[in-house]
Amino acid sequence: MTQHRATLTEVARRAGVSPTTASFVMTGRTDMRISVETRDRVLRVAHELNYRPNLMARSLRSKVTQTIALISDTIATEQYAGQIVYGSLAAAAERRHLLFICETEGDPVLEERLINDLLDRQVDGFIYATMYTRRARVPRSLRGQRLVLLNCAAGREIPAVVPDEVGAGRTAAQALIDAGHRDGIHLVGERAPHLIAGSERIQGIEAALGAAGVSLAGSVDCAWWPESAYEAMAAFLAAGHLPKALICMNDRVALGAYQALQEAGLGIPEDVSVVSFDDSDLATWLRPQLTSVALPHQWLGRRAVEILLGEAEHEGVERLPMPLRHRSSVASPRGRSGRDG
Amino acid sequence: MTQHRATLTEVARRAGVSPTTASFVMTGRTDMRISVETRDRVLRVAHELNYRPNLMARSLRSKVTQTIALISDTIATEQYAGQIVYGSLAAAAERRHLLFICETEGDPVLEERLINDLLDRQVDGFIYATMYTRRARVPRSLRGQRLVLLNCAAGREIPAVVPDEVGAGRTAAQALIDAGHRDGIHLVGERAPHLIAGSERIQGIEAALGAAGVSLAGSVDCAWWPESAYEAMAAFLAAGHLPKALICMNDRVALGAYQALQEAGLGIPEDVSVVSFDDSDLATWLRPQLTSVALPHQWLGRRAVEILLGEAEHEGVERLPMPLRHRSSVASPRGRSGRDG
DNA sequence: GACCGTTGCGCAATCGTTTCCGGTATGCCG
DNA sequence: CGGCATACCGGAAACGATTGCGCAACGGTC
């Protein structure tokens, strides 16, 4: 089935040298002097035999596997996770590391089992990711391991990478302020205390508005899903409210808001401006395209790998900026003279 | 940093037995007789020392790593990929295997490098996945390896798992027929030959329609994206066409169609019924919720793992059914007496 | 010719398991 | 008391690399 792989010992024998020499040649180490002829001979034989090192054997000795684990509660289930995975994958591949991906489904027992399985395979380090930003309790079995938290935090001593949600809130609010909005600004989406992203975004929003001498006109309470947002928004409009600008807690909420606004005959952005968070695919699919503050998922992944592999200084919790993706859903308050025409 | 892990030899010494005995006890092998007392003693010591086997050492000897590789062109970039990953992950975890995930980005050089890296780590097998169903050329370096193709095929001798797109086409068409549609049925989305999913879906659609003595009233040509679909559909309506039912090539196309229909004042499903393919998140977010034929992504992943680990018979190319998710976007042709109210 | 630095390389142990061979008691039978 | 199962276990060689030493040969110096 699987054809024979030449071993280092075979290469050494065929080249007429010791395994030691062959090893030094193959790994390119220079702390043992090897003549050019010998070196070339070994390399030639290795190439002829199509030699590839057995990394398990190497790792057994050297204690380094060039392997890292990305373990998450719901890595694949959540739609954005792909970008995190991709960022980590790419960063790992660039550094010649391979990634084990695991999903605990939030089950502590499964989590424990997976961590042990990973440990048994001698992974060099862990990225522990959660889908929603929150405080995390680091599993006991991860104590003492090389570890970076992603999207969650657990004190200063463990490096963590999270999105700068407060900054995002400021950015979103500022986008409206810059467009000339001063009143009629409403928040859409519930402010539940367990949604850290939410509280922080709101904190940033209020800071930016406050700095401009503006305050929120009100808020529409709904779950962070299209249907809930649609219903709440429809009821809000039916009650006679007429918002001039909406800050939606995420793109899915924005979708629901769009549906209600359009059904009520309100134009975006002529009558109502909309900004949102996440910058998912949805943002470009809506009509008009949605201005959204992007979650830097790919960067979170990359950054976590960089820190894990010790290339970046770890400064406790690192907050990655959430950039504004400016599109067509924001215009100046009255009239159609918005910056996007 | 990382605390000491007890080795099997240590356990053996502390239990007063040979490593051989300890090994047999720990792996639960019965082909060497071991007294109950000895067994218990070893187990107790192992537990006290918190012993965990070093799988690298084990694998070095036994040639089995309990590790498989999922290698894909664009695993994370594409939004559905998450479900494939999740399915494989779960299936692998259930069988005590760990998954290496890799993304080649369609680059043959990177692909070659990644496969070699995986081979060097002695993975037990490969799942080679592509995001869009197509013929695949299997990389040379994968020849002779345990391998299952996912979403692509390359001849009878290599097991493959793909969605049953022809069946999906039949299902979609049948949904309209069952609702009473006989004419005014239009296709939305380009029929490009490289989109195997497309050709096969159309094949199924025409088969089902033909069997019912019905034929397509026409088609709207557009790329498989919301914006393109919106524009094409808007133009189509502007030209005076009035479709009674739409079969959209995927949910994103359906989104574009929804936008155009709603802008034209046409009601879904009162005036126009819509069915689609993929059953992405979008389908439940739209108003009305979209009837869609689901891509069984999670099952593709699971199935590939099962076949790879030899639990399922490999019968060449296995086509997984694409089930209909019936929602509110389909009703009987005229009047609002659709089955979903 | 003794000494020494440099150059070039090999021996053998090691990593933590598994596994191929045995081996030693003990009891029982005849 | 010899022989033979049976029950229980251990020695040591793998697996395929890395690595701590040590060592031979050569050339030059005094």
TrEMBL record, chains A, B:
UniProt xrefs under CDD domains: HTH_LacI, PBP1_sucrose_transcription_regulator
Signal peptide: none
SMART domains given in the database record: HTH_LACI
Top-level division of the source organism's lineage: Bacteria
Molecular function, one GO term: DNA-binding transcription factor activity
Domain called HTH lacI-type: residue spans: 6-62
Keywords for this protein: DNA-binding, Repressor, Transcription, Transcription regulation
Keyword check for Cell membrane: no
PANTHER family hit by this protein: HTH-TYPE TRANSCRIPTIONAL REPRESSOR PURR-RELATED, LACI-RELATED TRANSCRIPTIONAL REPRESSOR
Protein name: Alanine racemase
Lineage: Bacteria, Bacillati, Actinomycetota, Actinomycetes, Streptosporangiales
